[in-house]
Structure formats: structure tokens, C-alpha cells
Here is the input.
Amino acid sequence: MSFLDHIRRANNWNPGDFLSLAAAGHIVGHIRCDRIDDLRAFPDTVTVSPDHLSLAPGLDDFAARSAAMDEMLGALRDEGAFPGWRGEFYPVMPEWGDAPLMQVERATCPWLGVRSWGVHINGYVRKSDGIHMWIARRARDKQTYPGMLDNMVAGGQPIGIGLMENIVKECAEEAAIPEDVARTARAVGTIAYCHQFEDGVKPDQQFCYDLELPADFVPRNTDGEVESFELWPIARVAETVRETFEFKFNCSLVIIDFLIRHGLLDADSEPDYMALCLGLRKGP
Amino acid sequence: MSFLDHIRRANNWNPGDFLSLAAAGHIVGHIRCDRIDDLRAFPDTVTVSPDHLSLAPGLDDFAARSAAMDEMLGALRDEGAFPGWRGEFYPVMPEWGDAPLMQVERATCPWLGVRSWGVHINGYVRKSDGIHMWIARRARDKQTYPGMLDNMVAGGQPIGIGLMENIVKECAEEAAIPEDVARTARAVGTIAYCHQFEDGVKPDQQFCYDLELPADFVPRNTDGEVESFELWPIARVAETVRETFEFKFNCSLVIIDFLIRHGLLDADSEPDYMALCLGLRKGP
Here is the structure.
């Protein structure tokens, strides 16, 4: 195995399996071809053409689009299309910073193939023998990726709140990190990928943050989503990423980016160095 | 102006102005359409087709390709095609780490549109009031980008030496940095772009290094390529990049990457944050 296998795993999308979904002149989603027939019952919401899908004519503002999608997705949920409802809305935007064209229930994003955003926080401690990183193990009963290794704190970006606001909320819920500590997290870049899996496709982008913690701080989960936290020497983190798929797929990318930014990969001796740097922000 | 203007300036390539050059089944260069006629005098080196160029049949190893190109490029030099000869060979590789297909004189790279690689070093000092960065001003008589602002040390990557070896050499020549200090430079990532200008096109990739220096170290140029060095507070560096084009185009990207990695751009308040992170490694 190599670090590059994680870039490949995260970018395993086969566009030929999907039809694109257009809204307001933008491609906003990608729906699996074998699910298109499910959409034919909703001609007032989605127009099905042989080579693409588009929101029905007349759905020309945020409220109208969101209401129509909500009704359609609710009906599909009742037929069992989605693994569960999260009760959280995500913005649908062509690019980060654009005005949202509509909002959709979080659990439907992979099925629709709409891009979502989130924050991933590298929680670490500097010791005399180098950097140690807090690693979370996801709860065994978590809906997605149960039992896998994860960044200390990570969360999707719901509509209507800022990134730092989301970090403060997630830090409190997932690791009992006080607000004043959470606010010292520093934005250090982003990753992007396009990952196909059973639920659909995630053409997502994540904001990465570094949070240096005091040596005596111990994270404690409060929302039941994390089974345990462990503080690992960075060499063990690097080796576990390089040699296994134990980390949730996108967390591997966040950690590879951390290793690169902190000078822990050597450009001369890591043959895939350039390919890794370019591959971390590939996207669809 | 905005930081994003620097991504745009560095990626101003119009592919329609060029024909691609193939060697051993790879696209290795892009030559301006209005220069194709210059190549018709060398049918034993380059085959001109209506929609692409390729190395002539029979040039099937490194030595044969390099010798044929050297002869052709020398003749074109004598006709004034290149601004000057550097006496340094660059490898021609589809991707970093591939076996070189041939080598060409450095000065011909933009004319041929072959990718080149290099190292850029952010030299900085941590003071009580934050990071200060050493900024170089290029000599007024330098062949390329005379008088422009630059990273403390930067250099193209010649064939046959390692990245750290190149750093040690460039640090000595450009800033009189002792080898033991130069070797503390840490690889922290890469940038990529595709920049069109009078000479041709540069679809280049640069390895970025951070070099933290002692507060009392003062760089001193030894090869005549740098007019002066100044130590600037990082806020002045950021403002100069954001508001002007005083830096050589690719140095702006190296500095924006530095600002992002060091948490000096805020993801909530910088509207182009995601576009910058993705745009720094765009390439052709």
C-alpha cells in the first residue's frame, strides 16, 4: 500500500454511472442511472431527459426549489431510498461562497450527488519527541462508517452557520473542547475528492484546521458519536494511514495533508510527493 | 485586486494558441501555432501534423531524443528564437518521478512548453510580533523578471540532482545560507500552474519549502542574481501580494500557500478561500 492508494480510494467516481442534475444553469448533482426511474413519478420537480436531469420549469427561487425537493425526497425516503433522515439541511451551491440555490436534507446528499462541505480538525500536542495526534474511533452504532478511525473532530457544514461557529459546536459535542480552545483552531487549507459508494457519490470539499492542544487536555465525547479517543505519536498515525484503510476515507486525506504541511513527508524520498500534493484537491 | 487575481495571472494559458508535442506516447510540450513553421526545417527531429507535433520516428531513447533536440534547438537559437542560453539541462518527464524521456537546454523550456520543476523557499523569522519573511528583489540585469520581488531563494530543478541538493546549492549562491541551515528547510507542499507569456508557456510545478531562520541571520547574495534582501512583517508581504503584481507571478502563489498553511487567511472572512486552495495546484 501507499499514501496514493488513499487518493485513489477517495476519487473512485465513475461518471458514466451517473446522470447530472442541473438547477439554474449549474450542474448541482449526479444521480445514479439505475435510480432515474424513481424520479419519473415527480415530473413537477425533476425533468428527466435522456442525457441529463434538471429541476422542473417554474422552480426558480430558493424557496420553491427547496419545497419541491423536500416533498420529492420525503416520498423517496418513505420508499426506503435513504439510510436515514438527519434532520439537518445542507446548502446546494455550485461553488463554496455562491448563494445557495436550494437546501436539501443532509441524508439525501450522496443519493443526489450534491456537493457538501465540512470541517476537519487535526487535534495535536507538541511533545519533546515530536507531534502526537488525537485520533477518534467512530461509535459502532454510527449511521455512517461505524467503528472507523477519524480525525479528533469533524462535521458537515449545515446551511446558515459560519465555519468557526460549526467548529465550536462540533468541538463541544464530539470532544468536550471548551469554546476558547476551539476558537484557536487555525484554517490551514482544504481537500477535495469525488467518492462513489453504495449511497451514491460525494463530490465534497473539506476545510482543514489545525488545533494545537495543551499536553494535559483529554477529549471526552458528549454526543455518543465517538467510541474513544487516543493520543498517537505522529509516526504511528502516518504508518496506519499508509498501511491500512482503518481511517474513514476522507480523514486519510486530511492526515496526509497534515503530514505534508508539517514537513513530515520528504519530497526527495517519497516518490509520490507531487502526485499526493496535487491529488489532495482533485475533486470531480 | 484580490489574491485570486494571482491564480488567474498564473493560469492565463489559452490552449488554442498551441499545438501539443508528443514523445514516446506522452504529451511533453506545447508550441505556439505561429512558431510551427520554424520546425518544418527539422523533419528528422519533429514531425508536423495538422493538429499536433511529435518527435520523429526512430528517436526512441533518451540519448537519441536529446541529441536531435539539442541540434534543432541550437539552430533555432542561432536564428534568435530564445532570449539566451543558460548552459543547464532540464529533464523532460510527463510527471515528476518518471524516467526522463530526454533533456533540453533550460532556456528553451517555455518555447517548447515543456514542464519544468523547481524549489521555492520561504525564509522566515518568528518574532514576538509574529512572522517576518525575507523578500528578495531580483537583479535589474537578470534575464527573466528583472527587478521583481521574489522568494528568499528559488531555483529551477536541473537534471540529475536531488531537491535538497539543489536547495543547498541555491541557498549558498543566492543568499549565502550555510549548508547546515539550508538542510533544515522542510518540504511543505507544491504549487502548479500553466502560465502563457511572450516566450511561450510554462506548465510548471514547484516544490515549496519553509526555512525558519535565526533572528540574527542576514542573507547576502553571492551570484549577482539578487539586488537586495529585506525582512518584512508577514502582513506587509500579504498586502503587497494582494494589492500589487510586484512579485514574480509564481512567487505570489508560493506566498499565498504560505499564508494558508500558517493559518494567516481566515476561511470565514476570505470569500475566495476555497477557490484559492484549489487554484494553487491547478496546472494545465
In short: The CA atoms of residues 161 and 167 of chain B lie 10 Å apart. The mean pLDDT of chain B is 96.
